Amino acid sequence: MNMATVNIYTTSKPYVVRGGGGIVAETHEALVLAEDGQADRIFFPRSDIALALFDPSTTTRIDPLLGAAEYFHLAGKSKQVNDVAWSYPNPEGAMAKLAGYVTFDSNIVAVEEL
């Protein structure tokens, strides 16, 4: 079985996340996780996210390449949106760049390049 090729690179393109009735993240310092056969995943620095709008989730997941993920709920204006974002607090090796970054489920919120 072939292992997928995974690359992480920086981009200065502006990105936003829209959810819960407004913009919850905006950055010019995103990291892009590019994996063979998958859509690119945009990671936002925690400092560019309205963290006060998020609550920790009890959901956990282990990714064999990235390690343990911690998930977050978005406290929207009318309802909570469960497990809409996640991060890998202790990635190792080549994935260590992702520490301090959060990604979002683009099936639930809009992750947009401006």
Provide the CATH architecture.
Answer: Beta Complex
Distance between the termini: 38 Å
Classify the helix fraction into a percent range.
Answer: under 10%
* SS-derived structural category: mainly beta
Overall shape: it is: globular
Counted by DSSP, the helix tally is 0
- Give the topology string: H per helix, E per strand: EEEEEEEEEE
Q: Rounded to an integer, what's the Rg over CA atoms?
A: 14 Å
The name of the CATH superfamily reads: Domain of unknown function (DUF427)
Task: Let me know the number of strands.
Answer: 10
Q: Which CATH first-tier class would you pick?
A: Mainly Beta
- State the strand order across the main sheet: 1-4-5-9-8-7-6
Tell me the count of domains: 1
**Beta strand %:** over 45%
Q: What's the overall average pLDDT, rounded?
A: 91
What is CATH's topology name? Metal Binding Protein, Guanine Nucleotide Exchange Factor, Chain A
Main β-sheet, in a few words?
A: 7 strands, antiparallel
How would you name the oligomeric state of the polypeptide chains in this document? Answer: single chain
Question: pLDDT under 50 segments (min length 5)?
Answer: none
